[in-house]
């Protein structure tokens, strides 16, 4: 019996991760190449293709029955409709990159090559391999350097008119509030991302002049959400309040999404979710407080079931299975 | 050649409107009955069915070739999946009313009987007969006593996991802000509905002690959005600021919806939209200011193309055509 697998590629700012993933979401083999800083897309596609081909070869040497069905790519500012990466601020490639066409030239026999953004890939990964297997309507929020989201309605990812739907990190949480990386003010991402939590920690230390906090000996640049978590576990008041406040903000944003889409569940993914109840509990309480009575008590907030280390490539690989359903 | 038509029923708090609508959205005949205050659903369904039957008869007397294909119902708290009206605060029927089943008992030969809430019906009406005929992804906001919304993704209305999706009027605009009818604080509906505009007018008069405003001789109870519009046309400063401010708020809310769904257009429907540029211009400016660069300049804000007088029954009737597509 042959064993079907797909390739998942995660294009990050400095590193591109590649994996061969089986139908259950197990990573059979993985590799990394640099995402170039030189902006030479042709060279990068050649390097990436060679790395993918070598990786396919390596798994087939172990098991000659493995058949690779397609390549799924997760990339910042990835546009599913056009197979393009468009004006990604953290990549060295300028303008619009026709990623899927370029990759198809290197894999003329590969039937399925598709691309989407990283948060959408995470949502599809959750649907194909993870906790959303039996759900037709759910939402994925990814908390990290930014806040991304992927929305699923009637079993399909929402791409919208131009392929860029699901930018819930850029909904307005506090009118006129903190500056957001996108140039606007008060967006959810400025509060609920890992850097948002750092801003909150310093905001609280400033307000309380909290020189006794465990976080008070860290520079603004070095303070991470992991450090805030470690301090919260040890009972640090500032750190505990950061989680309380982040949950309040996130819950408000999730309620807005629930009022749009009436999902069965909201999945949370990313570094800050490792804090468990510290973040889930206040988020749930705040979401409930903001919901209409018809939604209260109905919407689950769940941790992603994808393995954090592999989620990006696993999510990207899931895109191929989703394509095959069509 | 026979002429196909559908029945649209709009269940309002005190009045139920019924219309026979042709495939182009023309109302061939219409009638009204009281929505009862006595809560007797069996009697109401009997009265409604008799009125529908009489109306069908009347159009068939004029043109014997008219064939009625189904009945579409728009109702507050209408649940499409269950065909129910659930805990509608402004209706006298308590709890969950199995409206579609009850109506089908009276029309055993009618293949299509379906129900949704009024804002969803307006969105479907726009898609079948109105300005969204060629759109697969758009959003409808209805501004009136409340703010409703209907969301269309890939050509289908979004109902979500439980049938109640599209409650954008209850997204949070101002954290901790004005009390909303639903019990929460700061929801968009408390700012952008007609009563929200009244609150804004008085808020401005209070701030400026504006006894010279044309709105200053109206009681809090009697001031309507139409009066605010009439005063704005005459150059009243308070009234003009109400529209500016309402547009700012509405644009912020629309941007949140755009960031979720990436629609091709947002349609606005309802009394306050009659003010044209007074409301559309600041709304557009504010939406643009809140959008990510990838969305800027792309999203149209359009007035609904449905005739305001008939939109509720026309929208409800469109539900039948949508059902027939399935």
UniProtKB/TrEMBL annotation, chains A, B:
* PROSITE patterns according to UniProt: ROK
Which Gene3D superfamilies does this entry report, sorted A to Z? 3.30.420.40
One Pfam family this sequence matches: ROK
GO molecular function annotation: kinase activity
Keyword terms, alphabetized:
Kinase, Transferase
Enumerate the PANTHER family for this protein. BIFUNCTIONAL UDP-N-ACETYLGLUCOSAMINE 2-EPIMERASE_N-ACETYLMANNOSAMINE KINASE, ROK (REPRESSOR, ORF, KINASE) FAMILY
Q: What is the protein named? A: Glucokinase
**Record keyword Isomerase present:** no
Highest taxon of source: Bacteria
What family is it from?
Belongs to the ROK (NagC/XylR) family.
Q: Does the keyword Cell cycle apply?
A: no
